């Protein structure tokens, strides 16, 4: 996944928060001006997180 640069000052963004389900970065912060990017919502991960069931185990 690519990390964008700050829309305000152009500085590279650092990862602020990872998705609790797939561990992909979903929120970034500018190192320079501390401006936070919008959180990238994973709708599928949200569902998994809310109604967590070990579905994968059944297929094994
Ligand atoms: Zn996710
Ligand atoms: Zn910035």
Description:
The protein has 60 residues and is of the alpha+beta class. The chain has one domain (13-59). Helix content is 22%, strand content 20%. It has a two-stranded antiparallel ribbon. The longest helix has 8 residues, at 43-50. It is elongated, with a radius of gyration of 15 Å. The two termini are 29 Å apart. The mean pLDDT is 85. One zinc ion binds at residues 6, 8-9, 11, 30, 32-33, 35.
Individual helix count:
2
Mean pLDDT: 85
Q: How many domains, in number, for the residues? A: 1
Rg for CA atoms: 15 Å
Helix content: 10-25%
What fraction strand?
15-25%
Q: Got a strand count?
A: 2
Short description, anyone?
The chain is of the alpha+beta class. It has helices at about 45-50, 55-60, and strands at about 15-20, 25-30.
Features:
60 residues; alpha+beta; two-stranded antiparallel sheet; elongated; binds zinc ion
SSE order and pairing:
Blueprint: E1 13-18, E2 25-30, H1 43-50, H2 55-59
Antiparallel strand pairs: 1-2
The structure holds zinc ion (2 copies).
């Amino acid at each position: 996944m690519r990390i964008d640069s700050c829309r305000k000052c152009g500085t590279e963004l650092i990862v602020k928060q990872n998705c609790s389900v797939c561990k992909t970065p979903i929120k970034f912060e500018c190192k320079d001006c501390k401006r936070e990017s919008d959180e990238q919502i994973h709708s599928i991960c949200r569902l998994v997180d809310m109604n967590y069931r070990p579905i994968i185990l059944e297929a094994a």
